[in-house]
Amino acid sequence: MAPIIHLVRHAQAVHNLTTLNHGMHDPALTPLGENQCLALQSKFPHHDSIDLLVCSPLQRTIQTTLLAFDPEISRGVQCIALPEVQETSDLPCDTGSNLAKLKDMFKDKPVDLTLLPEDWDSKVGKWAPEQEAIERRCRDARQWLKTRGEKAIVVVTHGGLLHYLTEDWAGCEKLQGEEKPEAFKQDCVRKYSQEPDV
Predict the structure, then answer these.
(1) Per-residue pLDDT at 177
(2) Of 7, 30, 56, 120, which has the fewest CB atoms closer than 10 Å, so is most exposed?
(3) How far, in Å, CA of 59 to CA of 82, rounded?
(4) Which pLDDT score is estimated for 182?
């Protein structure tokens, strides 16, 4: 049976403050973002049932996962960085840090980076910000999640990618990034189960 998937958009990061910050490479959470994580931690009702944590390998999504889902981390739930769920654009703010830097940044944190190939942050080929590549990555991510043995999984990722991952375009003009009230907001959580043929 396919797992229940709780999809979470990361909390506020520095690039969310102004478009002037979109030139920042792999920005961290803001103090407000850290507080959003703590609020999410207190209001998320399914901590006891989560078997696996999955996150985009960008700094803000890893930080959101570690802060908001500390109860799971504390009881030994594995946290895996999955490159297929990285953000969709090639702006500096949506481009992750290289593997060596990530290993250094999170060396004392329980984040499994073993699924990241050396080129995961290249934004070319499989990682390109092109519709076909993004859709293929999302199919791969859905299939990977579906074949896991866990019953309940949290995936912390990005607003743009969530539309592709769910194929839910409500509130967002495809490929234009124009968000409306129905779009995935920061620290938003939605619960999904997968159909048999992903």
Answers:
(1) 45
(2) 30
(3) 13
(4) 43
Q: Is the dihedral of CA 17, 23, 26, 27 positive or negative?
A: negative
β-partners of residue 190 are 7
Round to whole Å and give the CA distance between 185 and 58. Answer: 17
Concatenated DSSP letters of 35-99: HHHHHHHHH-TTGGG--EEEE-SSHHHHHHHHHHTHHHHHTT-EEEE-GGGS-S--SGGGSPPPH
Residues in the chain: 198
Ranges in the chain, pLDDT < 70: 170-198
CA 79 – CA 13 distance, rounded (Å): 20
pTM: 0.89
118: number of Cβ within 10 Å: 9
